[in-house]
Design brief:
By secondary structure, this protein is mainly α. It has helices spanning 3-31, 36-66.
Length: 67
């Protein structure tokens, strides 16, 4: 398995976890004041998504730079 495949597969699983934490966040808010770890856990998973978003642009930028 290459690094790219591993990162993409890891990101897919993290997106499922992200969705679950957002749903848990809304459910906890409906019941009252949620714990801090529920509120901030989607923000921690944001970095993986930003990395996957920037990756194709960074590859193009590196490709132009080397040519």
């Amino acid at each position: 398995m290459t690094w790219s495949t591993a990162i993409r597969q890891g990101h897919r699983w993290l997106s499922i976890i992200f969705t679950a934490t957002v749903l848990a966040n809304f459910a906890a808010m409906a019941r009252g004041e949620p714990p801090a770890w529920i509120v901030y856990s989607p923000l921690l998973l944001l970095f993986s998504g930003l990395y996957m978003f920037i990756l194709p642009y960074a590859a193009r930028w590196r490709g132009r730079r080397q040519a």
